[in-house]
Amino acid sequence: MGALEGRVAVVTGGATGIGRAISTRLAADGASVVVAGLDKAEVDEAVVALGPPAAGFVGDLAQPGAAEDLHATANDAFGAVDVLVNNAGGGVILPTLEHTEETLQATINNNLWTTLRCCLAFLPAMRRRGYGRIVNIGAESVRNGLTDHAIYNAAKGGVHALARGLAREFATDGITVNVVAPSYVRTDALDAALAAGTAPARLRKVLDDAVAWIPMNRPAEVDEVAAAVAYLAREDSRFITGQVLGVNGGSSMQ
Length: 254
Ligand SMILES: NC(=O)c1ccc[n+]([C@@H]2O[C@H](COP(=O)([O-])OP(=O)(O)OC[C@H]3O[C@@H](n4cnc5c(N)ncnc54)[C@H](O)[C@@H]3O)[C@@H](O)[C@H]2O)c1
Fold this sequence. Notes:
This protein is α/β, with parallel strands linked by helices. The chain has one domain: NAD(P)-binding Rossmann-like Domain (Rossmann fold, 3-Layer(aba) Sandwich), CATH 3.40.50. It has nine helices and seven strands. It has a seven-stranded parallel β-sheet, with helices on both faces. Helix 1 (about 15-30) packs across helix 9 and helix 3 packs across helix 4 (about 100-130). The longest helix is centred in the middle third of the chain and has 29 residues, at about 100-130. It starts with 7 loop residues before the first strand and ends in a 7-residue tail after the last strand. Nicotinamide-adenine-dinucleotide binds near residues 15, 16, 39, 90 and 114.
């Protein structure tokens, strides 16, 4: 029997990249998974690929009301939610002074507001049931100050800090709140952009820097991030809360 048999998990940004690997891993461990994302075609494809029991939700989780709609969708599909993985995000990676109003808003919205709104929408029911596992996807760059990541780190740093505060506040409610913080992770989208030569030269430098700072001398694979999330999603990780778990090949150590 899988460690998540009978559990219900919601993975935001769960149709693509790291989130897709997380959805796949939690489903393999026995969970019913609700995949949330911005793009209907991507979400539909992921739900079909996962097979039942899986459900989808399409919406911008940075906007008021969407996280509550996601919670209702998950409840209607499978009943109460045990696991919330706040993976939605992604950086607009630019030198700080090259950011525009639009890229600033997108960076904070997609990484921080999605996470904050989902926590607020899911925590009341978790507290009533006395059970919950929340895993936020943060970033190693918060710790190592990676090239061109200042604005992204302002958002992800908020994600780390939110987890610590919630972990303390809900510690006696059977709810744990942790962060998985990856360094550079190879995804199909990044690989394709690099292979096609469409990635800006500056982004190549950022990724080269990231790998140079990793003692294992390579990026992470998506399933290596998913494995850490799956552990923190389990019932028996119950005494681990408020932690930032680096999946970083040793890029920072503590
Ligand atoms: N790839 C890396 O090197 C890396 C490193 C550290 C952290 N991360 C983080 O891991 C997570 C996944 O990144 P990825 O590389 O797989 O990127 P990705 O672009 O494949 O995935 C991001 C997903 O989030 C969803 N999303 C974004 N904004 C949303 C919103 N407002 N509402 C609903 N859904 C939204 C998108 O639909 C997409 O499915 C992100 O939080 C990213 O910041 C990635």
